[in-house]
Amino acid sequence: MSKKPIIIISGEPYSIFYEILFKVYKSNFLKNYKYPIIIIGSKKIMENQMRLMKYDIEINLINKNKILSSKILKKKINLINVDSKLNKAISKITNKSNEYIKKCFDIGLELMKKEIGYGIINGPISKKHFLNKKYSGITEYISKKTGMAGKEVMLIYNKKLSVVPITTHIPLKNVPKQISINKIVKKVETINNFYIEKMAKKPRFAITGLNPHCETTSFFSEEKKIIVPSINKLKRKRIKIFGPISADTAFLKSNIKKYDVIVGMYHDQVLTPIKAIYEFDAINITTGLKFIRISPDHGTNNEMLGKNLSDELSLKKSLSFFNKINES
């Protein structure tokens, strides 16, 4: 292999991920793709879902211990098989798939630790079943497993406008306790460096307030005590940042043209509008790790499993991102 492969961890076996993977392989998308691709998942479930949805793509089995000497074929699905006790094509999501999913992630992260892979794409998982309240999200799960806990930053990326939540999958009532000057500064610095190193671009940031209209009747104002000092500190570091701006007007057409990244204080404050604007034309990138990890911006969507109606755009965008960035 002239280039390190992109490692794709298939995630929850009873999600729509295999379907969108099949659609990518059946299109002409991979014809000029510059990286080899290796999938980690269940051969049996993949074959059963392929048969159900009438796809015919040859599977090329890869030994996880002999990747460097393996022949990676462009037109075939290069698969590291992980046996699963669940072999049906379609089923409900339960915690019975947890052991299988963990094995898939363990193999993928081990390959990254050995510097065999260039980056990781993972399919969706069920936070309710797989994470079981031990982690707030798969972003935090991966950062803990790779020894980078606390350094991870979630970036929902679109080439026109991206968003970053300072806090991710936590209850709304806990958000004020979880924001701090140090956390905001570190996360913005991480994203700023990512844009400069990978996209040769110095991004323009906008940062929202926490409270409606950046105002509060409370004695303690997060805007005055935390967010404004964070902005001032970042400006001294020569980072292009503006705010705090009110979240209810941050995504107006006239505003989003001015910025590359909007930083919000909590998950839905910025993810809801970005998904309303771009739908599946966005990807979830974890920055701050020793490698790039990307997840297509869709969930497991178990209700659509087997219907062959799911949109593969976000997986294509995930793969395309590796094609466009600077290698380092």
What secondary-structure arrangement, pairings included, does this model have?
Elements: E1 6-9, H1 17-26, E2 37-41, H2 43-52, E3 59-61, E4 77-81, H3 98-113, E5 119-122, H4 127-131, H5 138-145, E6 153-157, E7 162-165, H6 175-178, H7 181-199, E8 204-208, H8 222-236, E9 240-245, H9 253-256, E10 261-264, H10 267-278, E11 283-287, E12 292-296, H11 313-324
Parallel strand pairs: 1-2, 1-5, 2-4, 3-4, 5-12, 7-10, 8-9, 8-10
Antiparallel strand pairs: 6-11, 11-12
Helix pairs in contact: 7-8
Describe the structure.
The structure is a single chain. The chain is an alpha/beta fold and 328 residues long. The protein folds into two domains: 1-152 and 289-328, 3-Layer(aba) Sandwich (Isopropylmalate Dehydrogenase); 155-282, Isopropylmalate Dehydrogenase, CATH 3.40.718. The chain has helices at residues 17-26, 43-52, 98-113, 127-131, 138-145, 175-178, 181-199, 222-236, 253-256, 267-278, 313-324, and strands at 6-9, 37-41, 59-61, 77-81, 119-122, 153-157, 162-165, 204-208, 240-245, 261-264, 283-287, 292-296. The strands form two sheets. An eight-stranded mixed beta sheet has the order 3-4-2-1-5-12-11-6, with helices on both faces. A four-stranded parallel beta sheet has the order 7-10-8-9, with helices on both faces. It is globular, with a radius of gyration of 20 Å. The relative contact order is 0.17.
